Amino acid sequence: MSKNKKLSLSGDSTEKFIYKPKDLIWAKMKGFTPWPGMIVEPPLDLLSQQRRANTKCVFFFGSRNFAWIEEHNIKPFEGPWKDELSKVSKPAAFRHAMSDIVKYVDDPAEIDAQIDESCGMGNHATEADFDKIRDGLDSDENPDAAAADANNGVVPHVVGSPDESEVPPLAGENNANADAASSPVVSTTPTAKSQVKRTPKAKSSAAIAVSSKQASKAASAKSAAAQKRRISSHQTPTGILGASSGKRGRRAASGDADQYESPAGDYDGASSSSARARIETEAFLGTLTKRAPNAIALLDRPVVTRPETKTIDMNSRSNTLADRDIVPSDQTFGFLGLGMMGSTIVKDLIYTGHKVVVWNRTIDKCQPFVEAGAEVKDTPMDVVEAADIIFCCVSDPKGAKDLVFGNCGVLQLKDLRNKAYVEMSTIDPDTSLDIGEGIKQCNGRYLEAQIHGSRQEAADGMLIILAGGDRSVFEECHSCFKTIAKNTFFLGTDVGNACKVNLILQTILGVSLVGLAEALALADRFSISLNDIIDIFDLTSMKSPLLLAKGKEMAKGDFNPQQPLSHMQRDLRLVLNMAENLDQSMPVTSITNEVFKHTKRLGYSEHDSSAVFVRSRF
Q1: Half-sphere exposure (CA, 13 Å, Cβ side) for 362?
Q2: 570: pLDDT strictly greater than 70
Q3: Is 466 in contact with 352 (CB distance < 8 Å)?
Q4: What secondary structure letter does DSSP report for 316?
Q5: Is 586 helix (H, G, I), strand (E, B) or coil?
Q6: Which residue in 103, 279, 319, 375 has a CA-CA distance of 20 to 30 Å to 399?
Q7: What pLDDT sits at residue 43?
């Protein structure tokens, strides 16, 4: 075990230990005294559990189970604190744990073998269980199929492992481990009634690895686990395990009692062991049958794939844009940010004859625009120097402020006289006020021009422009706005009004999308055709082109981003922050925001906002 020095904030040095597998330690769980344990590689089933940062997988002596423990609750076993921790009056379970760690120091083979065995069985059983759920077969169909699966290394069912108990380090299994290890192994091969029929299928790499390693030991491992639980139920002292007994009682009441043996159980040989295995397996398969529909729906959830980034086609032309009579301005326009909306707007400006200078964080995105006639600069400051009016269109308020106030940003050019800055990013009013004040202090003019619409609407020149700020800048940008928008609104000289109106519109859109998604998800559960629902919706007074388009995307499962879901959730967050400053209650918007956040967690952040349907459906 190595250690290094780490300075605290106060300047005093303290020791921070770096742990590696097989290090003996003291570990403390909430509500329990420090317990002897060992740092180990986590079992496969423990890897799927959520855990906090800076945690280690700890094997507890005595109870011989595993848990994630935060590093600040871990100390090396050997140290000046050992005598204090080991001599305090402790129960019999703790004394057994101390003897267990001493036994490990003398002969680590037995415990190392148990740890190696536990690091695969949990995941192996889960893989077999999921196969049963997916097939949705009854346990009475074909008694000969399970034996064939066993030849392929698939264990029909493992009831549990010695480490599955939820009891913290004071678990009662610690009093019987040695006896269980030396007791005769009884075969628990499932009987004909407990076997299931499955169509062979390709297994995951994890399942194959575990199967090839443990197929030969599966029967003996199950019997050893059952023996340990049975013996522990007789020898565990009362008092210490009061909480454990309560938990097991509650488990039995909820239908999981098949995992625990009654104290009246016998140990007389293969007949009793076989009968117990049959009862446990039948009870387990019974629970699978009850929850099979929901489980299968979960397993059928579509795999999340990252949407493909489409290269902008500089040769395509919008018919709507071609019909407009646009006279380009003779001024030079700079554009910062070539994202989904920015690249489409710049393409239209170049097509209508405007002179454009561009910059983007990813320089490769600039190449198509260079070929189309735009000029590329290395920094935002260089764009400001070369242009008369500078547009900015980035993904969030932080990015917008960084381009203005950051290194090589807009304000690095101290004198902005005769220059104007137009903020098109979706931002909150406070951010817009900060940017406007900074621009004005450098003698520049500022206009906020919020764009409302999707990527396709931008390509067709059908956006809505909501502007506020300097009226002269608004007039000078007339040819640009006519290129990209069907309607333009000037909302006054007060900076922030345009941002407020845009966020209010986004609130209506977000709430409507979640309502549409949940309604279609309900129809799907009723096995009603989603296309029929959308056709009927089109005939009602509630119809709108946007909801019809989003509904069709949900029905087809086509979530090609027109407005990314992460952007919609960002807008809802900005709305809620704005409402919080006014003490305005918005419970429906808050719930809508949580729905979008959950969909982001499912992996649909970069998909279209209509992907919220996936969260509602599954």
Answers
A1: 7
A2: yes
A3: no
A4: -
A5: coil
A6: 375
A7: 84
Candidates 512, 474, 513; CA nearest to 490 is: 474
Reported as a single tens digit per residue, the pLDDT across 252-309 is 444 443 433 333 344 444 444 555 555 555 554 454 444 444 444 444 555 667 676 6
The pLDDT value recorded for residue 73 is 87
pLDDT band at 92 (very low <50, low <70, confident <90, very high): confident
Q: Quick one: DSSP state of residue 304?
A: P
The DSSP result for 320-340, as a single string, is HHHTS-----SSEEEEE--SH
Contacts of 369 (CB under 8 A, 6+ apart): 314, 338, 343, 346, 347, 350, 356, 358, 376
Whose CA is closest to 610, among 523, 552, 531? Answer: 552
Name the average pLDDT for the chain: 75
Measured distance CA(549)–CA(462) in Å, rounded? 16
Residue 489 dihedral angles phi and psi, to the nearest 5°:
-125, 130
- Write the CA distances from 570 to 64, 385, 491, 511, integer angstroms: 46, 32, 23, 14
3 state DSSP class of 75: strand
**CA–CA distance, 257 with 291 (Å, rounded to integer):** 17
- The rounded radius of gyration (Å) of the Cα atoms in the chain is 33
Alpha-carbon gap, residue 604 to 564, rounded angstroms: 9
- Amino acid 141: pLDDT: 44
For every residue of 167-214, which 3-state class applies, written as one string? CCCCCHHHHCHHHHHHCCCCCCCCCHHHCCCCCCCCCCHHHHHHHHHH
Long-range Cβ contacts of 256-265 (<8 Å, 24+ apart): 258/159, 258/283, 258/284, 259/159, 259/160, 259/164, 259/229, 260/229, 260/233, 261/226, 261/229, 261/230, 261/233, 262/233, 263/233, 263/234, 265/230, 265/233
Give the separation between CA 153 and CA 301, rounded to whole angstroms. 27
Share of residues in the chain with pLDDT > 70 (%): 66
Task: Look at residue 234 and tell me whether its pLDDT is greater than 80.
Answer: no
Q: Is the backbone of residue 579 left (phi > 0), alpha (psi -120 to 50) or beta?
A: alpha
537, 420, 534, 412: which is closest to 469 by C-alpha? Answer: 420
Q: Is 30 exposed, middle or buried (0-12, 13-18, 19+ CB in 10 A)?
A: exposed
C-alpha distances out from residue 508 to 318, 544, 552, 592, Å? 28, 13, 19, 11
Instruction: Give the pLDDT of residue 309.
Output: 67
Cβ 145 vs Cβ 209: under 8 Å: no
* Token pair in block for residue 320: 């709507």
Q: pLDDT tens for residues 337-386?
A: 999 899 999 999 999 999 999 999 998 889 999 999 999 999 999 999 99
Task: State the Cα–Cα distance between residues 380 and 335, nearest whole angstrom.
Answer: 9
Mean pLDDT of 129-148: 47
Residues 6+ away with beta carbon under 8 Å from 612: 513, 514, 517, 565, 595, 596, 599, 604
288 sits in which H/E element: helix 270-299
pLDDT at 218 over 70: no
| Residue matched to tokens 């009692």 | 257
Instruction: Identify which of 149, 207, 151, 193 has the alpha carbon closest to the alpha carbon of residue 281.
Output: 193
Beta pairing, strands 66-70 & 485-490: unpaired
